Amino acid sequence: MTVTYAIQILINALMLGVIYSLMALGFSLIFGIARIVNFAHGEIYMIGCFLCYFIVSFLGLPFPLGVVASIALAGLFGVVLELFLFRRIRPEEAGTSAEYPTVAVTLALSLMLPALVATFFGTTEKAVASGIGGTIMIGGVFMSKERLAVMVIAICIFIAVASFIRWHRAGHALSAVAQDREAAMLQGMNIDRISALAFGLGFSLAGVAGALMAPLYYVEPVVGGTALIKTFIVVIIGGIGSIPGTLLGGLLLGLTESVGSAFLGGNLPMLFAFLAVVIFLIFRPSGLLGRD
Amino acid sequence: MKNIVNSKYIALFFLILAVVFPLFPATSYYVYIASQICIWGAAATLLLLNIRTGLFNLGFSVFMAIGAYSTAILTTKHGISFWTSLPIGVVLAIVVAILIGVAIFRLKGMYFVLVTCALCEIMKLLLANFKDFTGGYNGLMNIPRPSFPFINFNNQTEYYYLLLVFLCIAVFATRRIWMSYVGKIFHGIEEQEILCRSIGIPTSKFKSISFAIAAFFAALCGSLLAALSSAVDPLMFGFDASVRCFLYAVLGGISSVFGPLIGTTVGMGINEAFSFALGLAPAILGVIIILIMLFMPKGLVGVIPARFFGADDTQPGQAEAKNGLKK
Lengths: 292, 327
Prior knowledge:
By secondary structure, chain A is mainly alpha-helical. Chain A is built from 11 helices and 2 strands. A two-stranded antiparallel sheet of chain A has the order 1-2.
């Protein structure tokens, strides 16, 4: 087990970790502001992959354009869905069972989207060439330029969104609604618009995660399921409602996966992760750093 | 003048229809579909019981898997008869349900749903990993049909009648449970759990009961399904299956005990009708569900006025409201 190998595993872990954190951040935004468990989050990731595939492999445009397009189009999709769908399905009565329309709708989306994508693009695996080839040597270790680029872009996006939430006025609005919806309404905040922003941002994050991963991993309609499960894991372990929490959770999952598949292989790393999830849910449902 | 057309007669009509239709020679393929509808309909109806206790149990298929794999392993590898494997699967499922329940009932809202999803995935990974036991991703095959002295259940139609009986039992049981004392408590937990606890009802215990009842029937559904398709594999009972059960239940409507059955029939009908084009059926199902949630959130049975179902089916206290409070 050489140092080189260890560093490569760590870089991989970091890359995966930040991507998972992006997904989890999007999911947390939607849940925190609209109180909706977005079961279709993984499918938005899948749509991001396919958007990138479409732009890069179909239309032959450069990879950065694919990333930007996925941010914009996924975000637009989120806003549209909020406007026409989620805004109208708000439970008026109390009681857990009144929540079923929102759960059913996101589940329905999670069924529809892969089916539609499969109809248009087929179910065979697609390849996306990012145009970033070759390896680069840093400190005596060979690393894939592609993975490094993806990692750097993902980190930048995460920092951008986190800063937005922390320092920009609209970000403050998001935090306010997430903390206390009624109080925000009393202050005269436009909850509808803030919800739309949350959905747009949440979907964009999932979409960009998909676009960034498209050249590295599989692009097929079924990837959404795995993406969703991993989002759940990160959100539960890291904690909802805390940005450092989602980063921590994502990194932990990335590490588990990277180290696990290097040394254990097969289903064991994921089984591990799930058992961790269940244990967390039993003993510390708010996650490591969560504040719910 | 009492309303003659009420739900019991409509249900009887459809029951007669269901009993009679296999006798037409042109429908032998549809008997297989109807058999599946019987099983998944029963599953969705029991899931309704959970939903109406406030438990969004998306891990329902875990218990189906327990029943199915118990039957599969016991009948193919140990030569135990189908009927004997049923109670074993059921007991296993109930034990697992109670153990899991103890751990997860304290979770509220979203976390409960997430952990049930996680359970699905864990089950799938467990089934796939222990290949010697479960056949891994390939699953197990050649599961025999149950046997009975004079009836040969290898005949699709005769097995269908067995499943129809099972479905009737499931629906009937759900309704009786819902109308009973326990069912009223379930309803209370669904609507105002904190209030229930404040008057001393041990809600966790009743949630366990609801969970265990659902697990009981789910295991039976799983075993019957294993015999129906004579093969099981981990993907049959994954998150996807739970989601479909849930969506069928919601599509049909969770305000009536017949809702999930109607939803399952419509859902699987759509699956069959649009199976010619890849991916078309789930897309259409998704669109329909979204439209129904937008415009008819009570589901398909929502079009039927509440008076058909009797006072207890929708809101508590409706009987008093109808008859007027006698002072």
